[in-house]
Design goal:
Blueprint lengths: L1 H15 L5 H11 L5 H26 L3 H7 L4 H14 L1 H13 L5 H10 L4 H27 L6
Length: about 160
């Protein structure tokens, strides 16, 4: 139970503050925990990351209302580009789902950046939450399984 709570907490912390690294923490705690907890650890860490990324989403959504950003968007073709991407991500659910899944699973584009972008263009919260949770869960589960497999290899035997 403690390992699950810690994984959730580190997941939230790493989502908010990038210098906390859940990817470095999970294999360590995973190797010290019961192997039956692998799915649970991956799930609670993903839930923590998702919760933390919602904060960045909200900041992105509120940031677009600022006078400073509105002034920046009025320069050149920035507003046109912003509106084009906003329309793409809000009117094409498959595109926004694909981008968010790639970001949450692979890390490219960086998920923190994409969380802010998703909020600023008002991407569907349902798509945002589900893709971040699924992508992060798959990433963390594979990380835990990979660490376990490497740990149990008999490299010198």
């Amino acid at each position: 139970m403690t390992a699950l709570l810690l994984a959730f907490g580190v997941g939230v912390a790493s989502a908010l503050l990038p210098f906390f690294n859940v990817e470095a923490y999970l294999p360590v705690i995973g190797l010290r925990s019961d192997p039956a907890l692998t799915v649970g650890l991956a799930l609670v860490a993903a839930a923590g990351q998702t919760l933390g990324k919602v904060v960045w989403y909200v900041l992105g959504a509120r940031g677009t209302e600022s006078a400073w950003l509105q002034k920046k968007l009025d320069k050149g073709k920035r507003r046109e580009t912003y509106e084009r991407w906003s329309n793409r991500l809000t009117q094409q659910p498959l595109l926004s789902t694909g981008i968010m899944l790639a970001s949450s699973f692979v890390g490219l584009p960086p998920l923190l950046v994409m969380a802010v972008v998703a909020g600023s263009v008002r991407m569907s919260m349902t798509i945002f939450l589900s893709t971040v949770l699924v992508g992060r869960f798959a990433r963390f589960w594979l990380l835990l399984e990979g660490a376990s497999a490497l740990w149990h290899l008999d490299l010198f035997g």
